[in-house]
Amino acid sequence: MKAVRKLMKVFITRRIPPEGMKILAAAEGCEVSQWDSDEPVPRSELLKGVEGAHGLLCLLSDKIDKEVLDAAGPNLKVISTMSVGFDHLVHSEIKKRGIRVGYTPDVLTDATAELTVALLLATSRRLPEGVEEVKSGGWSSWKPLWLCGYGLSGSTVGIVGLGRIGMAIAQRLLPFGVKRLLYSGRTAKTYAAEVNGEFVPLDTLASESDFIVVSCSLTPETQGMCDKAFFRKMKKTSIFINSSRGAVVNQEDLYEALSSGQIAAAGLDVTTPEPLPTNHPLLTLKNCVVLPHIGSATYSTRGIMSALAAQNLLGGLQGSDMPSELSL
Ligand code: NDP
Ligand code: DGY
């Protein structure tokens, strides 16, 4: 990698895997400061840390808005987020200032698809409930009607957002014997033929699917998309899974749908807010499985994400190509 000539200040908003730190440490002319903790940087420290920075390496939990950009000042050339989602970045402000943005697509697709399938199976086959029954002594015998759930074989699966991760989820689910694969989005995809995907309106997807998996990006259009009207269209025996962003779902409406028996169960890897408060109503429901946003959490994936985020940052600082640049 080409050396960075003049001294460039970089602020990293969290402790990140060593793969990324090594790349930045080896880059000439980079003065790195970091919020060296596993917990999020307090807003006041973020505002202090970015002052005069040329580069910012951030995470999905850092809201990068006008206030942060103003605090950084005119030096800031590049924002590199260690995530594929970029809904935490205020695009209009970043674009206005001509700041380049790097993100981490593809490298986390497999891990996230794998976790989503695990969540779907855990939810539909009631694994957390089963584990709890074993521990609490609720397991009295093999019982014909106990802890029954829903299987994928012969089912219809609906994917909301057949992008990189949606497609990888579809590819992993098909071998379970899925009969029909529906998907919705803004446009039909030619690559959907690989999974025999049928492009359908969201309403059709909601009413015909036995399993619904949300894997779209969070945009003004998708915010709150899974609401009362959506859940009312679902079958009473259907399972709802979300591994995209919490805000795609209206959680009050989801609670109502789950507690009234409008839908069978839900599995969420993402919520609003994160963390979900431990007294949140959704956590009182047996038919709701909530995970702490661990879609991409394998050691190797997180290492690769941090390396890619570091390379994107250096590309932006040098004014050269970034391996994964987001066009705003
Ligand atoms: P992609 O950009 O490849 O896919 C996003 C998909 O969202 C596109 O297919 C797009 O479809 C779809 N979409 C956009 N608008 C709508 C809409 N109105 N209705 C339905 N679909 C829509 O991104 P990835 O697959 O790589 O990632 C998707 C998201 O997953 C990320 O943005 C992130 O939020 C989340 N994620 C969560 C993780 C976790 O840990 N749980 C890990 C990684 C990602 P179209 O092209 O038709 O617009
Ligand atoms: C992302 O990258 O957007 C995920 O939510 C975390 O890996």
TrEMBL record:
Every D-isomer specific 2-hydroxyacid dehydrogenase NAD-binding domain range: 117-295
| Record-level Gene Ontology MF annotations | glyoxylate reductase (NADPH) activity; hydroxypyruvate reductase (NADH) activity; NAD binding
Q: Which Gene3D superfamilies match?
A: NAD(P)-binding Rossmann-like Domain
- Origin: domain of life: Eukaryota
The record's section on InterPro entries has:
D-isomer_2-hydroxyacid_DH, D-isomer_2_OHA_DH_cat_dom, D-isomer_DH_CS, D-isomer_DH_NAD-bd, NAD(P)-bd_dom_sf
| Family of the protein in this entry | Belongs to the D-isomer specific 2-hydroxyacid dehydrogenase family.
Q: What is this protein called?
A: Glyoxylate reductase/hydroxypyruvate reductase
Say which species the protein is native to. Oryzias melastigma
| Organism phylogeny | Eukaryota, Metazoa, Chordata, Craniata, Vertebrata
